[in-house]
UniProtKB/TrEMBL annotation:
Protein name from the UniProt record: RagB/SusD family nutrient uptake outer membrane protein
Main location: membrane
SUPFAM superfamilies attached to this UniProt entry: TPR-like
Location of the protein in the cell: Cell outer membrane
Family as reported in the entry's similarity comment: Belongs to the SusD family.
Lineage: Bacteria, Pseudomonadati, Bacteroidota, Sphingobacteriia, Sphingobacteriales
Residues in SusD-like N-terminal domain copies: 57-205
Spans through the membrane: none
Alphabetical keyword list: Cell outer membrane, Membrane, Signal
GO cellular component, as recorded: cell outer membrane
UniProt-listed Gene3D superfamilies: 1.25.40.390
Domain RagB/SusD: start-end pairs: 312-591
Amino acid sequence: MKMRILIAGLCIWALSGCEKLLSPDPENFKSIEQMYTDASYAQGFLVNAYRSIPGSYDNSEYATDDAVTNQRSNGYLQMATGTWTAANNPVNLWQNNYGAIQYINLFLENVDKVKWAEDEAAAQLFNRRMKGEAYGLRALFLYYLLRNHGGVTADGKLLGVPIITEFQTKDSDFNQSRATFEDCVAQINDDLDRAEEHLPYEYNNISSPAQIPERFSSITNNVETYNRVMGEYSRLLFNGLIAQSFRARTALLAASPAFLGSSNPNFWADAANTSAEIIKYKGGPNALPANGFTYYTNAAEIDALSGGINPPEIIWRENISSINTTQEAQNFPPSLFGTGFMNPTQNLVEAFPMANGYPINDNSNSGYNPNNPFAGRDPRLATYIIYNGSTAGVSNSVIYTGSTAGRENGDGINIRETSTRTGYYMKKRLRMDVNVDPASTTGKAHYNPRIRYTEIYLLYAEAANEAWGPTGDGGNGFSAYDVIKAIRRRAGVGTSNGDQYLEECKNDPVKMRELIRNERRLELCFEGFRFWDLRRWKLDLNETARGIDVNGSSYTPVQVESRTFQDFMNYGPIPYSEILKFSNLQQNKGWN
């Protein structure tokens, strides 16, 4: 295949992050054939795909009942209040993901011709690993396309997106029809199968030939060679554990009410069994790290990270960002020199139970006092949300969020453009030892998670409850009840009374479903899940976002922001520009 690629705009950017050069010299053009002798150039196609992975902290909570933002021009705010169209879609991943798939397909078509190393065994291992990464990444991008753009058409068909497994040239037929949802799921799983065949479960150094996985031992028995390719040096790259996680995510999506069809009766069990393998690998329901729910602020743990090592809570993460203040500058209250972007809602605050495990609306058992609403609550409330009277920042400053009490320092509700609109500020994702005072700025190390073990545990609980009920284990040795008990105990919920509310739920699959969904809401808040969970569960998207104005002992409810989603918006649109260009593309129902 003869082709000329603009290396200044493509490979230089992919490999080094340099800006695109607008007028490249002729020597900056490279042919595909140069991949075969330039391993770094070849690997650049995969590097570019990695850089296209959708971010975890997407702030899509702004379009849910969990949060609003004081950024009035924010795309998610506009989406939630009536401007979401097929031409104006903040969650559009079409161009990004198909662009990444193009890179991957080009790489896969040429990978076997690349001279990866002088040593033949190392060259074979590099070939295996990078093929595995490519297949895994292609599955990842198709998963996100399916989540964001799959849906039901006007004639009632459940469709996914076009499946593209070959590099498209200028002569290719781009007018491709959407595959069925089931075919997309099958393609994702097929690519994940290939990824797992080519990759180790995790990238760890070994000390003896006996530790080399069987599928690689036919290539080498040399420990140094294996470690060079499949060892610690490759951490943070796609691996078998990540592949298993995306298999579980895909099965959960397929099993969810918005996508589950009569032809897919086993998807709940599939999702449960797939995630169960990860839980077994971790060590069982009680193996979640005790500090896992504060992963973002475990200062000593974060500061000690190096060499691609993951904290015990993390399956996959982005690179460490050192001496960073971005999250804090965006989300601290004004008195801490932040711009308070993420404003948690009263809706979310009310979802946190009491410390004894009972929902606050259980008047007989909870002990909730509306005149002292933050007392005796689930410890995660104070950990994840700044409310009136909370302390925050390097000096443990008291934050007053009322329209009167917080007027002087600007933290009060609707005092200024950077003030909260709900009476709350986000605390999760932030390190309290960061100082964004312009006179004495102090940054700290941060990382963004891509997959947490807690997500997988919650995935299992949801799927297992639907497949086998609260206490059924499907032969895995643990149930939804076991997992939720471990998660709540770790958070300090129900520890004083044997978690009596959980004991009530374990005899009722419907009640357990609601508890599991609520635990997922709390544990994964502000991590980009709620927007998609509401849609796949086909729940009400139009719950008005509420707040509270606290001044002394006065608690005044505030209606903050109405939602104007329509029923068909459980599914996102195919981009309008693509519908105009390609006659074979069917739009999802309701989108013009």
